[in-house]
Amino acid sequence: MYVDMAQSMVLDVSSNLRGKNILLTGATGFVGKVIVEKLLRSFDCGKIFLLVRPHKGSNATERMRKEIIGSEIFTRLRGELGSPERFEALVSAKLHAVAGELTNAKIGMSAEDEAMLISQVNVIIHSAAVVDFNERLDRAIELNIRGELLCPFLFLFLSLAYGKQA
Q: Model-level pTM greater than 0.85?
């Protein structure tokens, strides 16, 4: 029997994410917003938990609403859904902010949030990163790579490479 190895090794992202609950880091950044929009528009995943650091007097949910849901990146999705009410219903059902900080122990989450994520999350997409090229190396590694909670799940790590044209 002949088995086409190339065909059998194709990663079917859509079927692998179907019904799965996802934890996304870096959701307030450029790449993170693109991932959130793509997950909502193109995949039939379950809940999407967004690890959001409280910042400048705003809690995680306020930052999610203002910086992510309020972003222009959702213009296409809003148009496809046809009404603000349908968009709001979708994001209310799918998106859930979780307060956290990647550089803190247990990524800065409460014990309740940690237990909830451990029991519900199937996939982690780690897209948080420091893009300051003057950052100390130890701090950049800590923010770009480390995450103590990121082990008991299917894990997708995203990395950006920057180049300068000569």
A: no
